[in-house]
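Notes to self after the call with IL:
- keep both proteins in one doc
- input above output, always
- annotate only the second one for now

Protein 1:
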Amino acid sequence: MISKGHLSKFNLKIKMTYFDKFIDFITRHNLYESKSFIEISNKTKNINYNNEESRDFIGCFYKVENEIITDFNVCVPQIIDEQTLLINIHEYVHALIIYNSLGKKEDIGLEKEVLPMMYEEMYVVESDEISTKKYLKQQKEMINEMNSEEYIIGSQIKDKIIYMYPDLETQLKNARLLAKTYKK
C-alpha cells in the first residue's frame, strides 16, 4: 500500500512546474551554468504579467561605459504558464549573451534577436503546446507589423543556425556573420 507522503512525492516527480520546464530546457541546450545563472537571477526583476502596463518593461538592459559593457538588468514576468516561460527563455538568452560580454567592448548588432528567437522556436517545437505555437504566431505577426530590422533579421537567420552549431558562442558568431550579409 502507498502512503499519502509517498503518493505526494510520486506526484511531484511527474508534474513539472513551468519553472522546472525552464530549467530543464536551458540545461538540455547547454545554456545553464551555475555561476551565470545565479548572477542573471540576481539581476532579474519579476513583473506581474497580468498588468499590461508592466509588460512594457520586459527586456534585458545593459549599461555601457567607455564602449565597455559594465552591467545589466533583466525584467521578466514570473513563470506561470507557457507564454511567460517563452518570454523568460527569450530574455534569459539575451541576458546570457550580455553576461558573457561583461567587461568587453560592446559589439551587439543586428544579430541580437537571432538566438533569443531561435531558442523560443526550439522550445515551441519540442513542447508541441498549442498555446506556445499560438503565442509565437502572434509574435511573428507583430514583428511583421513593426518592420524592425533586427527582428526581421532574427526571424530569417535563426532557421539557418537552429541546430547547426553546438554552443552559444558558435551560434552567436555565426549569427553575427549571417547578419552582416543580410540585406533588407
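Protein 2 (the one to annotate):
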Amino acid sequence: MEENMKKKNVKKQFFLVLIFVIIILIISSLLFPKQKKINNVSYSINFTKSNLGTKLEAYIKDSSYEADILKADGNKTIYGVINDTLENGNLFLTKGLFLYDIESEELKYYEFNEYSRVIDFIIFDNKIYQVILENDTEDSSIKWKIQVQELNNSISWIVKEGTLIDVFKYPRLFFEDDNLYITTLTNFEKNSEGYAKEKYSLSKIENNVLKELISYEGSLIKEEGILAYNIMNVKIENSIFYHTIVDENSIQRLMAYNIKNKENKEIKSNDSKNLILYSYIPIKNSMYIQYAYKNQTNRAKFEFDSKINESELNTFENKINKDCILFHNTGNRWYIYDTSNNKYIKLSNNRNNFYPKYIVLGENTILTEDFENNYYIGKIERN
C-alpha cells in the first residue's frame, strides 16, 4: 500500500514538472520569438527596357549626338540634355534639354541655341535654371554662369558667373521643399602661375538672386584656409547640406550644415596617412562612410553605426530605400549593403552590359543605359 502511494506521488510529481516545463516553453516563445535567419538573404535586380530611347530618336540627329541623363525628380520626371560630342572641344555642345515623364512616357524638348554646354538644370516656377560652361579663350580655364530663362519665351538673364580650373567642380543645383539651392566654386586672384585661391559656397536662389548661406575660402598655393573636397559628392537632405572640406593640415572633414538653424557640425574627420575619405551617404539617422586605401588599388573599408567592414572599392553608390545602399562596381557587378543586418551582398541580375552611371527613380528602382544607348529600368528585390 505504501509502495503504491509512493508510485502515485512520483507520477504526480512527474506530470507537475512536465506541465511546468511546457508552461515555461510557451512563455519563452511568446517573450522571445525565434529570430528569422538572415544569413541566406539575397537580392536580385531585373531590368526591363524603357521607351525613353525611342522617344529620343527624333532628337538624335547625327551620329555625334548623345543623350546625357542628369537626374530624376522623385520617381516621375527625368532631366537630360542632348550634346554634340564633336563640337566645342572637350566640353561638347548642348543642342537641347528634355524632360521625360516615366508614367505618361511624355517627352518635352527645349532647344538650346548657345555655343556652350548645359551641365545641369532645373525647371521651377515657369523658369529654366541652367548651369552653363564655356571655354575661356584666353587660357585653359572654364567659365561658368547661372542663367535663368523664361519657360515660354527666349527672355533670359545671368544670375552669377565664375571661373574654374577643374571642370568637374562645376556648380550643382538642388531642389528640396520648394526651395532651390546651388553650390558654386570659383577660382580667383590670377597670377603668372595661375589662379591662387578658390571660394566654395552654398546659396539659396530667391527672386532670381543668390543668397549665400555658407562659404569656405582657401589658397591653392599656400597651406592657408579651407578648400572644398570631393565636391561631386555633396548632398542636401532634410534641410541638411552634407559636404566635405580639407584644412591647411590636410585633414579631411565631413560636415553637416543645417540650413534652418545655420549650425555647421563636423560629423567625421580623417587624418590618416593611408586612407582618404572617399564617399558617404546619410541613412537611418546615421552615416555610411567609405575610405579608400591610398596604396592599395581597388581596396577600401567602410563604416556604419560603429561597424567596420573591409571590401573592394565601391563606386556609384546611392541609397535605394531606408535600409540599403546600391553600388555599381567595376566589371558591371551590382552590390548592396544592407544596414539592417550589416550584410554586403552581390546581386543577381538578368543583364550586365551597362555604363557605370545610373540614377535612382524611386524606392528600389533605377534607370541605367547599356552600351547600345538603350535605357532600362531596374527593379531591386529582396529574395
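Annotation: Confidence is low (pLDDT under 50) at residues 32-38. The first strand starts at residue 43 and ends at 49.
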